[in-house]
Amino acid sequence: MLTDSFDAFLFDLDGVLYVGEKPTRGAVEALERLRSGDHELGFLTNDPRPSRQQAAEHLDRLGFSITPGEIVTAGFATARYLEEEGYESAYVVGSRSLKKEIEHRGVRLVTDRDPSAVVIGCSEETAYEDIRRASLLVQDGASFLATNVDASFPMPEGRWPGTGAIVEAVRLASGQEPVIVGKPEPLMFELAAESLGSPERIAVVGDNIETDILGAHRAGFAGILLSDKPVEDLLPGDPRRPDARIERLSDLFDEGCLLSTRETPVSEWPGRAAPGVGAVVLDGSGRVLLHRRRVEEAWAPPSGRLEPGESIEEAVVRELDEETGLDVDRLDFVGVMSDPSYQVVTYPSGERVQFITSLFLVRSSGKLQGSEEGLEWGWFDPKSLPSPLTAYARPWIEEALGSTRAPGP
Fold it and tell me: From CA 326, how far away is CA 317, in angstroms rounded?
């Protein structure tokens, strides 16, 4: 049985312990049995509206015996994040409890002056004016924080719009990406584990593969999916793939419920895939063109996004013109680069994107202009490349120079 495999369990709340004002089938009894068996328990929710005290009171009304200190909400995690990152003030879109959690951590709430951060939570009282002001403040330079990006949450009559719906409105209006604090980010799970002793084997029980299971695996814990529906067909190395599936919490004690074998992915699982273009550019001496971004401090071949309506050839010529000013004398398609071990890029916002890159070998002439701000350019012998290189630089160069389409000197 699954209970024999773990010393502690972290439970999601909505959809796992209850739906609306009703506990899920057998949930109260299952938790009592786990406690009597000396298992340590913790609880976490992406709902940023209640305080930990309010969440505990709600659970008490449903028949559970859970203390506030055992619960981590997205609001509590966000308040801790603001405190630890040194934010002094915040404009908060969300519930009164979320605002109190943030104030309790020494962050000043503001509405009429420039905040150091804009925090988006969820509240039934959120209005258009809140979204408008948040969007403008982010455009003016405030850090953009999302307590979570859950698009909806379960209620008896269906799914209600969640924090993610409000975050998306601000994201689209401001053109900026948020830093996400809640699940599936590891912070939520790490804070929940703090309330435990020092268990060696921890499992997370949740009903969402995108937040609960993915987040559990990113934090280094096992993930058990609570669902009465078949698990979608996921690749063996996909970190959203649960280690076990149960239909009710009492199944944790079922002799027939066992852990499955899960492969470790070769890289962080990306949130989305995007088309891109890349170029291995050679000069008349066979040297390779590389640039180094000051922020990343790593060398890379020129690359860029494929814009709507462009062919891949048009995109690579445009990127080279915008970034270098070089003329393209010959353009040869090398292939499509998609290996996640080096094609997944993590942005400062925390977003992970896997680029599906159409790679070209380019013969070029003319004077290097390097017009893009913040870039340092240079020509290098392929056998003596600079250091450090981005993860994709060497595979691209080796693939392009090994191509039978490579032009001679």
Answer: 9
Which residue ranges does the chain devote to CATH 3.90.79.10?
A: 272-401
Does 47 participate in catalysis according to the annotation?
no
CATH superfamily of 272-401: Nucleoside Triphosphate Pyrophosphohydrolase (3.90.79.10)
Convert the pLDDT of each residue in 217-237 to its tens digit.
989 999 999 998 877 777 767
Given the residues 7, 14, 47, 150, the one annotated as active site: 14
The CATH number that domain 75-180 falls under is 3.40.50.1000
| Residues 258/262/268/270 CA torsion (nearest 10 deg) | -80
If you write DSSP's letter for every residue of 186-202 in order, what string do you get?
Answer: HHHHHHHHHTS---S-E
Structure tokens at 358: 């159409």
For the question of residue 12 being annotated catalytic, the response is: yes
Look up tokens 């000197």; give the residue: 409
CA distance 73 to 94: 13
Q: Are 380 and 288 in contact (CB under 8 A)?
A: yes
Active-site residue among 4, 7, 12, 251?
A: 12
Q: What are the φ and ψ backbone dihedral angles of 107, each rounded to 5 degrees?
A: -95, 125
> In CATH, what number does 2-46+184-253 get?
3.40.50.1000
pTM: 0.70
Q: pLDDT tens digit string along 360-389?
A: 999 987 777 754 444 688 899 999 999 899
Task: Confirm if 217 and 206 have CB atoms less than 8 A apart.
Answer: no
pLDDT attached to residue 88: 95
User: Using only C-alpha atoms, what is the Rg of the chain?
Assistant: 25
Q: Is the peptide bond before 386 cis (omega within 30 degrees of 0)?
A: no
Provide CATH 3.40.50.1000 ranges for the chain: 2-46+184-253, 75-180
Q: How far is the C-alpha of 380 from the C-alpha of 382, rounded, in Å?
A: 6
